[in-house]
Amino acid sequence: MNEKLTKQTIGVGVAGTGFIGPAHIEALARIGVRVIGLAENTAENAKLKAAELGIPRAYDTFEDMLADDDIQVVHLTTPNVLHFPYAKAALLAGKHVVCEKPLAMNTTESGELAKLAAEKKLVNAVNYNLRMYPLVQQARSMVQKGDIGNLFIVQGSYLQDWMLLETDWNWRLDPALGGTLRAVSDIGSHWLDLMTFVTGLKIKEVYADFKIFHPTRKKPSKPVETFTGKMLKPEDYIDQEIHTEDYATILLHYENGVHGVLTVSQVSSGRKNRLFFEINGSKSSVAWDGERPNELWVGNRETPNQILIKDPALVDEKPRETISYPGGHAEGFPDTFKQMQKKVYEYILNGDYDQTPDFPTFADGHYEMQLCEAIEKSAKEKTWVKIN
Ligand SMILES: NC(=O)c1ccc[n+]([C@@H]2O[C@H](COP(=O)([O-])OP(=O)(O)OC[C@H]3O[C@@H](n4cnc5c(N)ncnc54)[C@H](O)[C@@H]3O)[C@@H](O)[C@H]2O)c1
Q1: What is the atom index within ligand 1 of the atom nearest the CA of 17?
Q2: Ligand 1 atom nearest 226 alpha carbon
Q3: Do the Cβ atoms of 331 and 294 come closer than 8 Å?
């Protein structure tokens, strides 16, 4: 069936169209892949969103979307709790699946999904889209070529401020919807995935320190959309106990004796979405700030430091694949979605699923869940925890 699929005939269904669902839809439009229909939390919402986004079909339920034979690929952009049941149902219905991170709520679920996707020989991707920034790919290439030398230290942070106020609220604060971790699984897992991708190294053990700065938050009695930052009146809130971390610092022991440290926070005022990493090796260092994604800092001991800008003429061959525009023409967050889906759909349409995918898969999503569980255990038990 898949050999006959082309960009003209392949059909996509998207479940969940809040903040990030439309980013998937936009990316698919940019690469010429048709989104046929969408499912939402209610049939009415699906109709509204389909009209707003110009999507032909609005399904009453997710099951209706799976029953549509015109759909071969399902994108899951719902709250975390739905990733496992929806991904499992989609795989059992014979659909390829692109799932948002985190892949599931725990390793039992993520392990089952990785196994099922492999058994079914269906394409599976987890949207660790930050890998697709061209200069992240360049950092990886430089590590692979030996430009950095033997790696010593991997350090950095992922800081946001959208949970700073006690009145800030989102479904991610509810463990039943988001999981028992918050800052670590929501944004920390992006950083951890990126560092495994860039260094090629797995983490052997972790030691984590967590803090909840708002043990009680004011939850709006009405729904609030992600990142809209709307202010309600005092009588619109109810007090809610919080059990997930606002902040974490995690010590990391990688393979090959590489040491690392990551700080994650959703309460760092002024930091909107600042993912930063720096890798120090025996020859040089490399550093990147996700809020200035078109610049890569290269640190040298005996020659001047450099800023490499995103320019297809200046980067290595592999990173060039993720660049669409010449130097000086900034590419950013939405472009990572485009570049990721470009790779996913080339792979789906190529039809040879024995090839190693050039994008993050359910196996990577499962590894991230293993890390998350070890980090949570370490924070609770105040001890180093090994990764299985
Ligand atoms: N890769 C990234 O950069 C990135 C960025 C943001 C969010 N995410 C991930 O995307 C997912 C969604 O996050 P968001 O910020 O867009 O949340 P959101 O709350 O803005 O959107 C979620 C959407 O899912 C819908 N939904 C709820 N129940 C549903 C159901 N039963 N069936 C279908 N749709 C349903 C909601 O109505 C809403 O429209 C999360 O897993 C999050 O971790 C990833």
Answers
A1: 39
A2: 20
A3: yes
Q: Give the H or E element holding residue 203.
A: strand 203-211
CATH number of 134-330: 3.30.360.10
Radius of gyration of the chain (CA): 21
SS3 126: strand
Residues 6+ apart with CB under 8 A from 367: 196, 202
* DSSP 8-state code for residue 82: G
Closest approach atom of ligand 1 to CA 45:
37
**What average pLDDT does this structure show over 209-226?**
87
Measured on CA atoms in the order 355, 22, 270, 374, is the torsion positive or negative?
Answer: negative
Residue 240 tokens read as: 């809610």
What residue's CA is closest to ligand 1, atom 28? 41
What is the Å distance from ligand 1's center to 20 Cα?
Answer: 6
The letter for the amino acid at 125 is: A
Structure tokens, 4: 């006959």
Residue listed under structure tokens 């800030």: 168
**Phi and psi (nearest 5°) for 291?**
-85, -10
Helix (H) or strand (E) holding 92: helix 83-92
Q: Can you tell me the distance from the alpha carbon of 257 to that of 249, in angstroms, rounded to the nearest whole number?
A: 20
CB 288 within 8 A of CB 277: yes
The per-residue pLDDT for range 16-68, each reduced to its tens digit, is 999 999 999 999 999 999 999 999 999 999 999 999 999 999 999 999 999 99
Q: Residue 106 to residues 31, 42, 76, 148, 282: CA-CA distances in angstroms?
A: 33, 26, 17, 35, 37
* Global pTM value: 0.96
Measured from the CB, is residue 18 less than 6 Å from ligand 1?
yes
Closest CA to 388 of 380, 163, 372: 372
Tell me if 2-128+341-361 shares its fold with 134-330: no
What CATH homologous superfamily does 2-128+341-361 map to? NAD(P)-binding Rossmann-like Domain (3.40.50.720)
The tens digit of pLDDT for each residue in 199-216 reads 999 999 999 999 999 999
- 64-116 pLDDT, tens digit per residue, is 999 999 999 999 999 999 999 999 999 999 999 999 999 999 999 999 999 99
Where along the chain do its domains lie? 2-128+341-361, 134-330
Sign of CA dihedral 195, 199, 204, 209: negative
